[in-house]
UniProtKB/TrEMBL annotation:
<dbReference type="InterPro" id="IPR036069">
    <property type="entry name" value="DUF34/NIF3_sf"/>
</dbReference>
<protein>
    <recommendedName>
        <fullName>GTP cyclohydrolase 1 type 2 homolog</fullName>
    </recommendedName>
</protein>
<feature type="binding site">
    <location>
        <position position="64"/>
    </location>
    <ligand>
        <name>a divalent metal cation 2</name>
    </ligand>
</feature>
<feature type="binding site">
    <location>
        <position position="220"/>
    </location>
    <ligand>
        <name>a divalent metal cation 1</name>
    </ligand>
</feature>
<dbReference type="Pfam" id="PF01784">
    <property type="entry name" value="DUF34_NIF3"/>
</dbReference>
<feature type="binding site">
    <location>
        <position position="103"/>
    </location>
    <ligand>
        <name>a divalent metal cation 1</name>
    </ligand>
</feature>
<dbReference type="InterPro" id="IPR002678">
    <property type="entry name" value="DUF34/NIF3"/>
</dbReference>
<feature type="binding site">
    <location>
        <position position="224"/>
    </location>
    <ligand>
        <name>a divalent metal cation 1</name>
    </ligand>
</feature>
<dbReference type="GO" id="GO:0005737">
    <property type="term" value="C:cytoplasm"/>
</dbReference>
<feature type="binding site">
    <location>
        <position position="65"/>
    </location>
    <ligand>
        <name>a divalent metal cation 1</name>
    </ligand>
</feature>
<comment type="similarity">
    <text>Belongs to the GTP cyclohydrolase I type 2/NIF3 family.</text>
</comment>
<dbReference type="GO" id="GO:0046872">
    <property type="term" value="F:metal ion binding"/>
</dbReference>
<keyword id="KW-0479">Metal-binding</keyword>
Amino acid sequence: MNCQEIIEAIEQRYPLKYACDWDNPGLLAGSREREVDTVYIALDATDQVVDAAAECGAQLLLTHHPMIFGRICSVTTDDYVGERLIRLIRDDISYYAMHTNYDVMGMAELAADRIELREREVLEEVLEGEGIGRVGRLSCPMTLRECAEFVKERFGLPNVKVFGDLNRQVERAAISPGSGKSMAEPARSKGAEVLITGDIDHHTGIDMADCGLSIIDAGHYGIEHIYIGDMERFLKERFPGLRIYTAPIAQPFEVL
């Protein structure tokens, strides 16, 4: 099969029209006609990931976060994006990213399933009733501390950051994988008692806690790493003859 056949399957399930207007998903490097028998899947196209894709003989690298967001005026080894692009093109590896279109059409439900969220609804609509995040009811009331421990267990995390009273009882919850600062107000307006997300800054955390919305910051990678296994399953179901390698699940930082 060629790269375009895989892209068509991906875009049928996760259409690009659901991507946010600031986003840049799609084929970012290489040829649609490239014959593919091996795919490497990762959250980000880091140096280590680009090396691993080449080492396993992948002809297609598939990531969640696009390596290219803004305008590129040159492709040289003078900067990390240009250097990675040169390595991908040199090794004849096509590179495809699926970001907010996957967040809307895949990640939101997948993350809500992990925490067994019931009676769920879209947290913030993007298009045609579909959108970013979910809000609903936890399987049972629990303290904020118990909820934080539950999130750690369900996403395989060593730690989370919590804003709010750990002894407070919570039941209505919102979850928004990735960077969820902008989801705080939508979560509060929909009656959530706790928001589970990542990349929460100091002021958002303390202000929302004062307004009655507790926050569990599970990290950007902490929730979104579920993309890797989900896409592996997706490709295996649709292309059983494809060899698939995945980046190991490992936090990109250490807390000492």
